[in-house]
Specification:
single chain; 142 residues
Length: 142
């Protein structure tokens, strides 16, 4: 398909909030960004929607590419559309939730220099608006 538009279009991304319970605490999976923007900062796994995939396929693909995790069951939670949430251009993201278990051991992949679990009460400084996304997902769960 070829597209020609007289006016700009927003980009669409899918971000994954992946949680697991271990030793009585809830952990969230984050990746350390390997490139700009926010290079070196921690973020949710996720990325841009391709023209030939659904949002569900996008979040599963990006999660596998960045963390190596497969077979997670994602549930769409909310859309985030603040005007300046991404410094590159106008980007709207759809957040998905997945629950992992002890068998899900991440490894850094494309666009990620690291991937690891963090306790929800000890999160590093996060890129983009990912702190807000995590907060809203937790609100939906409570």
């Amino acid at each position: 398909m070829e597209y020609h538009y007289a006016y700009p279009r927003a980009a669409i991304t899918a971000d994954a909030v992946i949680l697991k319970e271990t030793k009585g605490q809830t952990l969230v999976l984050l990746i350390q960004r390997a490139s700009a923007p926010f290079q070196g900062m921690w973020a949710l796994p996720g990325g841009f929607l391709e023209m030939d995939e659904t949002l569900e396929e996008c979040v599963a693909r990006e999660t596998e590419e960045e963390t190596g995790l497969r077979g997670l069951q994602f549930k769409q939670i909310a859309a985030f559309s603040a005007i300046n949430r991404d410094p590159r251009h106008r980007t709207i993201t759809i957040a998905f939730l997945a629950l992992a278990d002890e068998t899900h051991q991440p490894r850094a992949g494309s666009d990620a220099s690291n991937a690891r679990w963090f306790p929800l009460n000890k999160l590093p400084q996060l890129a983009f608006d990912h702190g807000k996304i995590i907060g809203e997902v937790l609100e939906v769960l409570s």
